[in-house]
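Z., the sequence and structure:
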Amino acid sequence: MKAIHIPQLTQATEQTEVIEVNEFLPSLETLTPIQGQIRVNHQGNYLDVSAQAETIITLACDRCLQQYNHRLTTNASEIIWLDEAPPSTVPEPTEVELTAEDLVETLPARGYFDPNVWLYEQLCLAIPQKQLCEQQCAGIKPVVEPEGAILDRRWAALADLKQNEFQEHNGG
């Protein structure tokens, strides 16, 4: 997907561009190509962007650590404000106080909108925080060894020392 030059959107039919998506994004590992549609509508001083997309990704279960496939879908919509001011050449201070107006996406009115980056962000936001292979996943089952059995043979030397110390202490 190519970046969209924002001023050219004003010459498009209904000031809208619809992008059919059927490809892999290099920054997101998926098993299938991302399929769906992105709609970018120029509304004068903002872009109205929406997408319906899906793919399949591999996740690791938080409980049992097994990998499983997950259908990742997004039905996202966002308003991106267009900033008419040229970018500032003065370096920004390291500490900045933010207002509610600062917490919105903005793009330069004469700049570009990159649908790849935007779709990547929306799909990443759709990845579940709690990753479970199934709701009833019991997690990792501990291995129960018979009494005195050594789980890891590297500990055998320590077990021998403990056994010798026990025998010396008990007069054996």
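The longest strand covers residues 67-83. The chain has a mean pLDDT of 85.

Let me know what you think.
H.
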